[in-house]
Amino acid sequence: MTDGPASGTDTVRTLGEFGLIQQVTAGRAQPPTTLLGPGDDAAVVAAPDGRVVITTDALVEGVHFRLDWSTPRHVGRKAVAVNLADIAAMGAVATSVVVALACPPDTPASVAAELMDGVAAEAARAGVGVVGGDMVRAENVVLSVTALGDLGGRAAVPRSGARPGDIVAVCGRLGWAAAGLAVLGRGFRSPVSVVNAQRCPDPPYASGPEAARAGATAMIDVSDGLLADLGHLATASDVGIDVRTDRLAVAERLVDVGTALGADPLHWVLTGGEDHALAATFPSFADLPEGWVTIGSVVLPDTGVTVDGTPYRRESGWQHWS
Amino acid sequence: MTDGPASGTDTVRTLGEFGLIQQVTAGRAQPPTTLLGPGDDAAVVAAPDGRVVITTDALVEGVHFRLDWSTPRHVGRKAVAVNLADIAAMGAVATSVVVALACPPDTPASVAAELMDGVAAEAARAGVGVVGGDMVRAENVVLSVTALGDLGGRAAVPRSGARPGDIVAVCGRLGWAAAGLAVLGRGFRSPVSVVNAQRCPDPPYASGPEAARAGATAMIDVSDGLLADLGHLATASDVGIDVRTDRLAVAERLVDVGTALGADPLHWVLTGGEDHALAATFPSFADLPEGWVTIGSVVLPDTGVTVDGTPYRRESGWQHWS
Fold first, then answer.
1. How far, in Å, CA of A316 to CA of A319, rounded?
2. Which family does it belong to (chains A, B) (predicted)?
3. Nearest residue, CB atoms, A46 vs list B15, B44, B51
């Protein structure tokens, strides 16, 4: 067992499970919601609401990230961010995460430490405690994160509450991660802004609870792509949704990248996943909180998700197994 | 996407992520603590105490289990049981679990379904909801489970509260999983009782909260082996512990297996992991709850863990990475 920082030649095998767990959790600052931090059989976290929101999402090397495209720190941040976005999409404020890290025994200890540094950094950025972890050996690097959140006395905002006549709004970036993926796929490493958006999303965590307070009727985290995730929301709510492209801002940076690569930036905005923006429906009379932009409306059932009144003709969303 | 049960030729690839998630979560009964079950961005679970206990542990094929030794159902049950034992060891009552399942794309859908059936079966046995999940592709089967629990107004029982003069007690089986591992390692499949103990533990979940109510000063789940885990407790509490072998019951079945294999069954009891019994310390005047047996005493610091007053000479515990 080694208590000091990892040297360049240590691997997770030489460092040992207990040394690694101690190294990545010792001395981390904890928010007031962490009542008992890591090191015991389990942690204790405040749940002042009397209910707790919980979600889990795992990232796998070669499927959800590549360590030649992303730094371990980006990957650690992303594994936390995708979970915190799910908590926000319920209208809750995240309180804590736990992490199960699987990696090959010959993984440099510095890589494992950087992964966990990224986990800690994103958690700290969101005011969330890293309250527990498990380290196991496997063929791939797999980061399984579970996040908890508190509803502060509000009802959870499900996917199923949208009603005809509601407006549809989004908050956060759309299409940036897809543009970054296109850039990386061509072997480029810039523009850094879109490449970094693919490496780690920047979800608007606080905007989920703000939407809940403003009366959001349904909400979802845009992980698979705007049209795909609005499709999930529409199905759960048994409504149709029409998106107006004249309401969708296509950032100048995406236009530039699209021009350079011969790609349609609007397609990235409509179908690109992994940005973890939030999409929600609100009563037509609602005052949208800062950062939320109206992009369409909820319509009568049986029309699915349409774009400017017609079905979108190009493939949208993706599945991990295909 | 397939809604019906998996046929023999389906794989997780052909079934698709969404079909698999739906198949393993749809229609499962939920306990009253599950306020919003699977299917949204996150679930909502009751936390009546205002605090929530949380732990995570992952099992990896080839490291923690072998699918030629265990059925997928055993593995699913074990992945839940090891987490629920950690919740019990804090003195809490488990309320829910979430599961991230990683598996190769060519995994038969029936295997994934049986893994999740095992998860659901052990959760149901403990009155716990399976409230969320994620399915991802990886080289190994990795089951990452996170469990939540409720303290019912009690203080959590940490590892660090043991005091000189306390008694040391255990509840649950010791040495059975190690005996089962020895049997399997020699190529045998019986006696079934010890082999099944290795495939899936039978932790005494209710005995954790009962120990807390009876005034337990420190508690730990015996996952690495009795002496190793008492060592963790002694270190956290800054005390020594002496175990009396005349107090340790060695089951007749373990004596028989030891005789057949030429092994010392007491060594299994003292050092065998994976049974997930509970070990705790109590004030000397405490009335031990049913199922708890005194096996030793807490002594002054600097003596570590001793057996009948002397250091145990044989190696104990194990590390995943070595």
1. 10
2. Belongs to the thiamine-monophosphate kinase family.
3. B51
Q: Is B121 exposed, middle or buried (CB count within 10 Å of its CB: 0-12, 13-18, 19+)? A: middle
Residue B9: what pLDDT? 73
Q: Provide DSSP, B110-176.
A: HHHHHHHHHHHHHHHHTT-EEEEEEEEE-SS-EEEEEEEEE-TTPPP--STT--TT-EEEEES--SH
Count the neighbouring beta carbons within 10 Å of the beta carbon of residue A318: 14
Within 13 Å, how many C-alpha atoms sit on residue A183's CB side?
A: 28
Task: Tell me yes or no: is domain B12-150 CATH 3.20.20.300.
Answer: no
Looking at CATH, the fold of the domain delimited by B167-311 is given as Phosphoribosyl-aminoimidazole Synthetase; Chain A, domain 2 (3.90.650)
Across the interface, of A35, A54, A57, the residue whose CB is closest to B45 is: A54
At B301 the pLDDT is: 85
Q: Could you tell me where in chain B the CATH 3.30.1330.10 domains are found?
A: 12-150
Under an 8 A CB cutoff, do A55 and B43 touch?
yes
**B223 marked among binding-site residues:** yes
Which range has highest mean pLDDT (A100-114, B3-17, B155-169)?
Answer: B155-169
- From residue B278, alpha-carbon distances to A82, A227, B169, B319 in Å are 35, 50, 8, 20
Best mutation target among A49, A90, A157, A321 (most B Cβ atoms within 10 Å) is A321
Q: What residue in B sits closest to A38 (Cα-Cα)?
A: B55
DSSP class of A313: -
ipTM: 0.92
Confidence of residue A12 (pLDDT cuts 50, 70, 90): confident
- In chain A, what residues touch B144 (CB-CB under 8 Å)? 56, 58, 100, 102, 134, 142, 144
Nearest-Cα distance to chain B for A208, in Å, is 12
Q: Phi-psi region for residue B310, left (φ > 0), alpha (ψ -120 to 50) or beta?
A: beta
Q: Cα(B256)–Cα(A265) distance, rounded to whole angstroms? A: 71
**In chain B, where does the domain assigned CATH 3.90.650.10 lie?**
167-311
Tell which residue, A77, A82, A74, A128, has the closest CA to residue A221: A82
Q: Do B322 and A219 touch (CB under 8 A)?
A: no
Using the structure block, give the residue that is written with the tokens 């920082």.
A5
In B, which residues are within 8 Å of A59 by CB distance?
136
Q: Give the one of B48, B58, B136 whose C-beta lies nearest to A63's C-beta.
A: B136
Tell me if B57 is assigned to a ligand binding site: yes
Under 8 Å between Cβ of B90 and B149:
yes
Give the best residue of B41, B55, B135 to mutate against chain A (max A CB count within 10 A): B41
Give the best residue of B15, B22, B45, B54 to mutate against chain A (max A CB count within 10 A). B54
pLDDT tens sequence across A265-313:
999 999 999 999 999 999 999 999 999 999 999 999 878 999 999 999 7
